[in-house]
Each structure stands twice: as C-alpha cells, then as structure tokens.
Specification:
The complex is a heterodimer of chains A (284) and B (358). In chain A, helix 3 packs antiparallel against helix 4. The model of chain A has no long low-confidence stretch (mean pLDDT 87). Chain A is globular and about 90 Å long. With 284 residues, chain A is of the alpha+beta class. In chain A, a hairpin with a 4-residue loop joins strand 5 and strand 6. Classes of the chains: A alpha+beta (284), B mainly alpha (358).
Chain lengths: 284, 358
C-alpha cells in the first residue's frame, strides 16, 4: 500500500488511468458501430456542405450538418425561424421535462420567471419529406404573392426587388437548400423510432432544446428553441476525403453560386446515436 | 528532526541561514559569545547538514541559488506551456494526412510515451524541473488524446473527460511535487463536479456555469482536502484553500449582483440580498479562520473578497447620488478603518502568541 503512494506507484497508477480510459473510449466507439446502424441515410452536399472556412493549421476535415426547422409563420423566409419550430409548443416542452409556468406574465410584473437551462433530448430529423415540401410550397406562395403585388403597380422598385428575392429563394429552395428538417423531439428514442420508422429518411440524434419567451405586447409567450445537435460536425476520415479534397481545391465554397449538389454521403448513426460517414459518392 | 520532503529540507536550510545571520548580530552586540570550539562544532554541524540536504533534495543553500531557482521555475513553467501548446498544434497540422488507425495509435501512444519519459526523468533528476515540465506535456497529450477521439469518432461531449484529466493531473502533481499540475487537476475536478451538480439539477452539463451555485459543493470539498496532511508537498494545502475560496466567492459575487441565475426560486432582489449577506459573513469568517489557523492565503483572499463585496455595495448605494469627491472619500475612509481593524487584530494575535509560553 505504501508503494502505491510513492512517486513510482503514482506513475504506475497514471499508466493504468491512460490505458483504462483509452480502452473504455474505444469500447464505446466499437459498441456504437456494432450491429445494424440505428440510421443509415443518404444526404447530399445540400445537407452536409463543405466548410466555408478552413484553418490552414488544421489538416482535418469535418462537414457541418445543415438542419432546418419550419416556423409557425407561413411567410417565413427559409432561415428566419431558425431554431424555433412550430411544433415545439408549450405542451411539447412540458413533455420534454420543462416546467411550464401557465402564466409567465411580463418581466415588469415582478413575477420572477427564470428561463430554464437547455435539456438534452432526442431530435428527429427528416430528410426530403413533407417538411421540405412545405418549405418549397411556402417559397412558391411567397413568390406568387410578390408577383401579385407587383402586378398592381409595376413601377414600384421595392416590389420588383421583393419579387427578385422571392424568386431567388425559390430557386435556392429547389436546388441547393438543405432538405433536412427537425420534425419532432422526445426523451425516449425507441418511442420516436416507432413513430418515425423509416431509418433511411429519419435520423434520431441527440440535441439540446431550450425554453424561451417570446415577448409579445401584453404577455410573454412560451416558445421552444432547438439550440443545437450534440454532434453537428462530422469528421471525414482520410479514406473518404479524396473527392471532397478535390472539390475544396477546385472551389472552396459553392454556396454563393446556389449550384446543385456535387456529392452524396451515406451517413450512419449507431447505438449511441453517434454518426459516422460510410461512403462519399460523386453526383453527375 | 526527520526530514521527509524537499519543502521540509528547504525550510530547514532557511532556518539555518536565519540562525547564522542572527547569531552574527547577537555576537556583534556582545550579547552572547561562543567559544572557538563551540563555533567550530556548530559550523561543522550546519555545513554537514546542509551538504546532506543539498545532496538528497537539491535545495537552495543561499540567496543567489534561490534567485537562480526562481528563474528556473519560471523557465520550466514557460517551457511546459510552450511544449504543451506545441503538441496540440503539431497534431492539428498533420492529423488529416493519417488514416484513422494511425491517428488512434499516435493519440494513444503520445501520453504513454510522455508519461514514461516523465517517470524516467523524475527518478534521475533531483531538482524536478524537467519532470514537472514533462508532466504537463503528458497531461496535454492526454487532453489531446481524448478530445481528438471525440472529434474522430463524432462522440457526444461528456463531462467525464474532466474527471479522468483531473485524476491524471493529481497523480502527476503528487508524483512530481508539481503545483501547476495540481492547479490543473483542481480546475478539471471543479469542472467535472460542477457539471455533475448541474446535471443532477436537470440541466445539460455544458451549461453548469449558468447556475453559479453548482460550484459550491466542489468549493467545500477542496477546502476540506488539506485536512489530509500535505507536509511532503510544497504549497499544496494553500493551493487547495485558495481555489476553494475562489470557487466559493466568485459565484457568490455573481449571485449577489445577478440573482436571476440562482437556483433559489425567490424574487431576484431577495436572492441578491441573501448572497450579499452570505458574501460579507463568509469573507469575514474566512479572515477570522485564517488568522486563527495561521493561513495567510485564506486571510488575504478573504480580505480581497470582503473589500470587493463592500465596494460593490458602496457603488450600488451611493455612486449615482453622491458627489464623486465624497464617494472616493468614503472609500478612502473605509480603507483606513479596515487598516485600524487589522492593526488591532494583529496586536491581539501577537499578544496571544506571547502569552502561550507563559
């Protein structure tokens, strides 16, 4: 026992800590990737774009998962309701474990309504499904409305600009915007999977949800907000990098051009809901 | 007197140096005169003792050596930080060129190799400077090891990483008698325990800092840690106490001024009032305990926070309506009042010290 507390013993314990920790971490990785993946989905450059900026002193490459939500407002621009999905209501937040004050009042009421901290939950992401089609419909309607307004007064420069913007939005929505939408959240991934059974269309990922207050004129309204996914940057292993490195060398970012996607990525999520890239394929 | 550590050996050497200079003064003023044989015996005894301590613990036997040692400590500290940062940037520069297996092998081997070198150097070198430096590099390699595994395998971030980093930092700190590593261990442990306290209260661990009360349990734990004797390790007990006080008073200071972030389900003003009172009482108590137990670190830190709490309150009460010359006059007068209180306390302490032998 005395030897254990000597410098030699402490160093020996240090070696044990290093070895045991590495074994535990790698065992966790092996467990995550064992068996049939929880999700096996094909995403494109629209959902996993190349990074905007790369640090010259970091030779690694990670792709950011570009997920979206549909806000409550019909006329929302594609990213205006970012993080505030219409379905994340007070009832849903209560089901996720938040304590909801029935009458949050106003800050000036002296009614102390502390904003709760974010909670870790499971978030369902739908790829190229009804949520995306709804976003597309909203963009088409926005363009139709803008054109109607322009027809009433063709000399109005501002109305012409609105039409141009709406047309660009629709084009982006059709060609390059992400089709991956957060459509539900829950505390039990198994129950979510029962509801969203298609493993090639729905990802169940860990993420953070927050309760916020929308300050209206008279009262505060409870509003749910998806803060982030727990893993949003997905590492690209060397074996899968060839095509992506070639695209980076050719054109660092295609975002501005709103061009169609150039690659598809098969992405798997394992037993611990941690993702990995299975393959990268060029699109014609 | 048996000497068990470098800090005890250094303490003894300092004691001998003080004794020698005092003896020279006493003899100069002819209060005491040693015979030649006594002087020779004393000089031989001290010379042999210092030589023995120096060879066993590599201590500083005079002021010049002490100054050089300080320079070496600073160089070792800077070297350790530089090498640790270099390890990070070196890996980031090249890791993308390696396959996953090679990355894993490098990341696993680096801390093991660094630890083996640290162990070997600590056994060969008495001063411990290189062992401390390499100890920090080993810890940096381990931090890199786990954080890069997290990136490579897209793992969900976990507070448990802080626990294993803390464990390794503590082991290295005690093995190499390194205060810097102890500080890293304490910070990692504080991160882990505060995050755990946060998760027990229902929040996601990364947001533990948004409820400052999460730091209270770790502050208490760290304050109690030096109850286990730390004689063998230089300055460890003081480091534990200072971190404990910081981890208690900084959250109290935040809560005393921003009650909305508290766990207490009370009105914001009530929360702030509670923590203002707590701040004053506990900082006063820290000064008192520090004086009683002879812990200058606790006295000084308690003093700093008592002053901050006091001046924050003065600012809240008077800054807006008082003319500035009057506000700063009050600040100055309060400082003088505190000076007088400390003078009285000091006198009381020295009186009680004089009474003990009687």
């Amino acid at each position: 026992m005395k030897w254990l507390w000597s410098p030699r013993g402490l160093f020996a314990l240090g070696f044990s800590v290093l070895v045991a920790t590495n074994i535990a971490v790698l065992a966790g990785v092996a467990y995550n990737r064992s068996g049939t993946p929880e999700t096996l989905i094909t995403l494109s450059e629209r959902e996993l774009p190349l990074p905007y900026y790369r640090n010259e002193e970091d030779s690694g490459l990670a792709l950011h998962v570009d997920w979206r939500v549909l806000g409550a407002e019909e006329d929302d621009a594609p990213y205006r309701s970012w993080g505030y999905p219409a379905w994340l209501t007070a009832d849903k937040l209560a089901a996720l474990g938040f304590q909801i004050n029935a009458d949050p009042g106003l800050e000036t009421d002296g009614n102390r309504t502390r904003t709760p901290l974010p909670k870790a939950v499971f978030i369902v992401l739908e790829n190229n499904g009804p949520a995306y089609r709804e976003a597309l419909r909203r963009a088409e309607q926005a363009l139709a409305r803008a054109k109607d307004r322009l027809r009433a007064d063709r000399t109005d420069q501002q109305r012409q600009e609105t039409v141009d913007k709406a047309a660009k939005r629709l084009e982006r929505e059709r060609i390059s915007a992400s089709r991956l939408f957060a459509v539900d959240a829950g505390r039990d991934p198994a129950r979510l999977r029962e509801t969203f059974a298609d493993r090639a269309r729905f990802i169940i990922a860990r993420g953070l949800v927050k309760l916020t207050y929308d300050y209206g004129k008279h009262r505060r309204r409870v509003q749910g907000y998806i803060q982030r996914l727990s893993v949003e940057d997905i590492h690209v292993p060397l074996a899968q990098r060839k095509l992506l490195d070639a695209l980076i060398a050719k054109d660092r970012s295609r975002r501005e051009a709103d061009a169609p996607p150039r690659y598809d990525i098969a992405l798997a999520y394992g037993r611990r809901f941690e993702p990995w890239i299975v393959s990268v394929k060029a699109l014609n | 007197m048996s000497i068990r550590s470098k800090s005890e050996a250094q303490q003894r050497a300092d004691q001998i140096a003080s004794f020698r200079s005092e003896l020279a003064i006493v003899e100069g003023e002819q209060v005491l005169t040693l015979s030649d044989s006594q002087r020779t015996a004393l000089a031989d005894y001290h010379t042999n003792l210092l030589a023995g301590l120096s060879s066993a613990y590599d201590i500083d036997t005079d002021r010049r050596e002490k100054q050089l040692s300080l320079g070496m400590k600073i160089a070792s500290f800077l070297g350790a930080l530089g090498l640790a940062a270099s390890v990070f940037f070196l890996f980031y520069q090249f890791w993308g060129r390696f396959g996953t297996r090679t990355q894993v092998l490098i990341l696993m081997a680096a801390p093991l190799l660094a630890l083996a070198v640290t162990m070997s150097v600590s056994q060969r070198e008495k001063t411990g400077y290189f062992a401390k430096l390499l100890g920090l590099v080993s810890l940096a390699c381990f931090v890199l090891n786990l954080s890069m595994f997290g990136q490579i395998f897209n793992m969900t971030p976990s507070e448990n990483a802080f626990l294993v980093w803390a464990v390794l930092a503590f082991l290295l700190a005690y093995a190499a008698d390194a205060r810097l590593l102890l500080a890293f261990g304490i910070i990692s442990l504080a991160g882990f325990l505060s995050a755990k306290t946060g998760t027990w209260s229902g929040c996601y661990w990364i947001y533990f800092g948004e409820r400052p009360e999460n730091f209270f349990p770790v502050a208490v734990l760290l304050f109690l840690a030096p109850l286990i004797p730390h004689h063998r390790f230089s300055g460890f007990a003081a480091i534990y106490r200072v971190f404990a006080i910081l981890l208690f008073f900084i959250p109290v200071l935040i809560l005393a001024n921003w009650g909305a972030v508290s766990y207490l389900n009370l009105d914001r003003d009530a929360v702030e009032a509670i923590y203002q009172v707590v701040g004053f009482l506990v900082s006063g108590a820290a000064i008192w305990v520090g004086i009683k137990r002879g812990w200058p670190d606790v006295v000084n830190t308690g003093n700093v926070f008592f002053t901050i709490f006091l001046y924050t309150k003065f600012y809240d009460w008077w800054w807006d309506w008082m003319p500035k010359y009057l506000f700063f006059l009050v600040i100055g007068l309060t400082a003088i009042l505190m000076l007088l209180i400390f003078k009285r306390l000091r006198r009381a302490v020295s009186r009680s010290r004089q009474e003990v032998p009687a």
